[in-house]
Design goal:
By secondary structure, the protein is of the alpha/beta class. The protein folds into 2 domains: about 25-115 and about 125-265, Type I PLP-dependent aspartate aminotransferase-like (Major domain) (Aspartate Aminotransferase, domain 2); about 265-390, Aspartate Aminotransferase, domain 1 (Alpha-Beta Complex). The protein has 13 helices and 12 strands. The strands form 3 sheets. A 7-stranded mixed β-sheet has the order 1-9-8-5-4-2-3, sandwiched between helices. Strand 4 (about 145-150), helix 7 (about 160-170) and strand 5 form a beta-alpha-beta unit. Helix 2 runs parallel beside helix 9 (about 255-265). It is globular, with a radius of gyration of 21 Å. The structure holds pyridoxal-5'-phosphate. Pyridoxal-5'-phosphate (PLP) binds next to helix 3 and helix 4. The site of pyridoxal-5'-phosphate has 15 residues, from helix 3 and helix 4.
C-alpha cells in the first residue's frame, strides 16, 4: 500500500465538509430572525417564558416528566451530579471512550471517575467491563460508587437493560449522557428518559444545536427536578437567600427560542441522517471495502446518527490526511481515551487497561452525515476511500 504522499485524483473541486450548518440556517432563517427581533425588543434575555416553553417541549419530545434548561451539555452533567449529591468521597463509573465533559464533570464535583471499556461494536460502555472493574475492587471501594454515566455515543443508546440491572444491584444513580442522542431510542424508550437524569447538549454542531452554548437536564423525579432548578440559580429559590451552593447554570431565552424552532424539524433531519447512513452502507458494500472498513453496528432501534463513524483496519491517520486533501472533512471522536488523559494520570491507569477503547481511539473516523448531504457527495467520499486503499 503506497499511502504516504498519495494525492486524491479526479473530481477535486467537490467539497464535502464534515458539517455545513449554513444550509440548515437558510431553511429556518425567517423564523429565527423574527424571534430574535421579538427577544431584542423585549430585552428579556435569561430564563423566562421562552426557556419554560422549551423545557416543556423537550420533556415531551424525550418522554421525560421534567426538563431544566441549562447553560451547556457539560453543565447538564455537572448539575445532575450535584443534584444527586455526588461529592469528594464518591466514585462514578463511566466509559473511557467519550467526550471529555463526561469524565471532567465527575472530577469537578470532587468525585473520582472510574472507567470501564466499551463494546467494540457499538463503542458504548460494556456491562461486562463494568462487572470486571467492580470485581477488581475491594468491598469498601465498591461502596463508594454512587452513580453511573452511560454515554449514548454517536446517537445510539447504550444497552440500558444491563446498566439498569447493575444500578439496581449496587444502588447507583443513573445519569444518561445523551448529548449526542436526542431522539434516539432504546426498546421504544427515548434517550435521557430511562435513568434518573438525562443530559442533552445544544452545542451548535450537535443534531439539535443552538446558536451558542446551551443544554438541558431531564428527569422523571419531582425531587430531582426541584433540586436542578435550585442549583441552576446559585441554590436560591428566594433571591439572596441560599440553601445550597449551586452555580450560574442558566439558559438564555434566545438560545431556547432558536432550539424550539429547530425542534420542529428534528425528526425530518433525523430521517435524512438515517437515510444517509443507509446510503453509505450501500456505497461501501458496492465498493467492496468490507475487509478494511468496519461500518457502524446498529443494535438499538433508533440510532439518530449524530455521527457516522467507521473503523479502519489500517492507516486511519493517512486516510484522514488524504481525505482532507480531497476536500472531505472528517473527525476523530476521540483520539485519546479518558484513562490515558494527562489530567487523570493520578488515577494510575495505563496503556492496555481498556483495549477496545484504545483500539477505537486509533482506528475510528467520523464521516460527514449531516441531513443536507447529497448522494453525489457521499459517493465521492466512498470513491476517495476506495482510491486510497487500492
Ligand atoms: C457535546 C458533548 C458533551 C458536552 O456538551 P457541551 O454542550 O459542549 O458542553 C458531553 N458529552 C458528550 C458525549 C458530548 O458529545
Amino acid at each position: 500500500m503506497k499511502a504516504e504522499g498519495k494525492k486524491a485524483e479526479g473530481k477535486n473541486n467537490m467539497k464535502v465538509p464534515l458539517l455545513d450548518l449554513k444550509l440548515q440556517y437558510q431553511t429556518i432563517k425567517e423564523e429565527v430572525m423574527k424571534v430574535t427581533e421579538e427577544i431584542f425588543e423585549s430585552q428579556y434575555f435569561i430564563l423566562g417564558p421562552r426557556v419554560e416553553a422549551l423545557e416543556k417541549e423537550i420533556a415531551e419530545y424525550c418522554s421525560s416528566k421534567h426538563a431544566v434548561g441549562v447553560s451547556s451539555g457539560t453543565d447538564a452533567l455537572l448539575i445532575s451530579l450535584m443534584a444527586a449529591d455526588i461529592g469528594p468521597e464518591d466514585k462514578v463509573i463511566t466509559s473511557t471512550y467519550t467526550f471529555f465533559a463526561t469524565a471532567g464533570s465527575i472530577a469537578r464535583t470532587g468525585a473520582t471517575p472510574v472507567f470501564a471499556d466499551i463494546d467494540p461494536e457499538t463503542y458504548n460502555i460494556s456491562s461486562k467491563s463494568i462487572f470486571r472493574v467492580m470485581d477488581g475492587m475491594t468491598g469498601k471501594e465498591r461502596k463508594k460508587i454512587k452513580a453511573i454515566i452511560p454515554v449514548h455515543l454517536y446517537g445510539q443508546c447504550c444497552d440500558m437493560d444491563s446498566i439498569l440491572e447493575i444500578a439496581a444491584q449496587y444502588n447507583l444513580i443513573v445519569i444518561e449522557d445523551a448529548a449526542q442522542a436526542i431522539g434516539a431510542e432504546y426498546k421504544g424508550r427515548r434517550a435521557g428518559s430511562i435513568g434518573d437524569f438525562g443530559c442533552f447538549s445544544f452545542f451548535p454542531s450537535k443534531n439539535l444545536g443552538a446558536f451558542g452554548d446551551g443544554g438541558i437536564a431531564a428527569t422523571n423525579s419531582d425531587e430531582f427536578f426541584d433540586k436542578l432548578r435550585l442549583l441552576r440559580v446559585h441554590g436560591s429559590h428566594l433571591k439572596y437567600y441560599h440553601n445550597k451552593v449551586g452555580g450560574n447554570f442558566r439558559l438564555d431565552a434566545l438560545q431556547a427560542a432558536i432550539v424550539s424552532i429547530k425542534l420542529k424539524y428534528l425528526d425530518g433531519w433525523t430521517e435524512a441522517r438515517q437515510a444517509n447512513a443507509d446510503k453509505y452502507r450501500e456505497l461501501f458494500i458496492d465498493a467492496g471495502l468490507e475487509d478494511i472498513v468496519n461500518l457502524p453496528a446498529e443494535k438499538e432501534n433508533r440510532h439518530i446518527y449524530n455521527q457516522f463513524v467507521i473503523s479502519l483496519k489500517e492507516k486511519r491517520d493517512d486516510l484522514k490526511i488524504f481525505l482532507t486533501d480531497a476536500g472531505i472533512g472528517t473527525e476523530i471522536y476521540y483520539p485519546v481515551p479518558m484513562h490515558l488523559q494527562d489530567c487523570f494520570s493520578n488515577l494510575n491507569y495505563g496503556e492496555g487497561d481498556f483495549p477496545a477503547g484504545e483500539y477505537a481511539a486509533s482506528h475510528t473516523l467520523a464521516l460527514p452525515v449531516y441531513p443536507e448531504l447529497s448522494y453525489e457527495q457521499q459517493a465521492y467520499v466512498v470513491e476517495r476511500i476506495k482510491e486510497f486503499y487500492s
